[in-house]
Specification:
The chain is mainly alpha-helical. The protein folds into two domains: 90 residues; 34 residues. It contains four helices and no strands. It is elongated, with a radius of gyration of 28 Å. The two termini are 54 Å apart.
């Protein structure tokens, strides 16, 4: 967990600047995976995939719905699905890391936030469950205070507080 000194604000120790790669460096699987995932998720690729399935279906009578004809679509979809799982997972992991870093920066920069929450995604499942229960208790206490406040306001609604 990142702890800041009581005498300094987190902004006095900012993170290193983010530098974009110029694209001429070595192959980056993360960049490749993100580009392929973005491309594969486009409407053009969806239409292309639908057209491919349509063409495959229309060629069925020509190939007499043979086992080879069926094997073509089964093999193609299996290979594409297998590869896309890894590409999408890589992209998802990268996005999750980026979101966590952004949230950590917000926590770090807010003087009222609990710096203990920075990097909580690295805690064990047991620790996360305990932390969730802690915040659930806080939420329940807030709900009870709000309910009591509403009852008090309703009870004093018809009476004149000034005497």
């Amino acid at each position: 967990m990142v702890q800041t000194s009581l005498n300094t604000h987190p902004r006095e120790n900012p993170p290193p600047p983010v530098q974009e790669s110029n694209g001429t460096s070595h192959f980056s699987f993360s960049r490749f995976a993100a580009d392929i995932a973005n491309w594969a998720g486009s409407s053009k690729v969806f239409v292309l995939a639908c057209a491919g399935v349509l063409v495959w279906g229309l060629t069925g009578p020509h190939f007499h719905y043979s086992d080879t004809w069926q094997l073509v679509i089964n093999t193609t979809t299996t290979i594409i699905t297998f590869l896309m799982v890894f590409l999408i997972q890589n992209t998802q992991n990268r996005d999750t890391r980026a979101i966590n870093l952004k949230l950590d920066e917000i926590i770090r920069s807010n003087k009222h936030a609990h710096n203990e929450l920075i990097d909580i995604e690295k805690l064990s499942d047991k620790d996360l469950k305990e932390l969730a229960q802690h915040y659930e208790r806080i939420r329940a206490e807030c709900d009870q205070r709000e309910a009591a406040k509403a009852v008090l306001e309703k009870a004093t609604e018809g009476t004149d507080v000034r005497q």
